[in-house]
Fold CBS domain-containing protein.
Amino acid sequence: MPIEDLARSDVVTADRDTSVAALATAMRDEDVGSIVITDGETPVGIVTDRDLAVRILGADVDPATQTAADVMSGDLCFIDRGAGFYEAAELMSERGIRRLPVRDGDSLVGIITADDLTELLADEQQKLAEIIRAQRPAY
C-alpha cells in the first residue's frame, strides 16, 4: 500500500518567522504534534512538540524571543508518496524519527507518523485475529 493512501494530507505548516507561542497554539488547535516549516512553498524543517519542550522549556530559553527557525530540525527527511509502508518504517528507524513529510516531486502532499504506522499494524492484527476466531473450533 503506498504511503499516499496512509498519510494525512492536511499538513500543518508555518514559516520560519512564526513565533514558538504561535506554533504551540497551532499544535493545540489543530491537535497535531508537529508543524512543517516552509520557505514559501518549500519545506525546510519541522518543529515537534518535543522540540518546544526540550529546546525552549528544557533549555530555559525565553519563548518570546524564539521563532520556528530557532527550534526547527532543519535536516528534513522526506518520503515519496509512492513509497511503501516498509520503506517508511525503515527510514524512520534508520533516522530515529517519528514523522515523515510526504512529497510528490518538490510538493508537500502529506505527513505520515509512527503512530499512523502503528495504528495500521494494529488494524491488520485485528483482522488476522478475526480470521483465527472464525476458524477456531468451539470449546
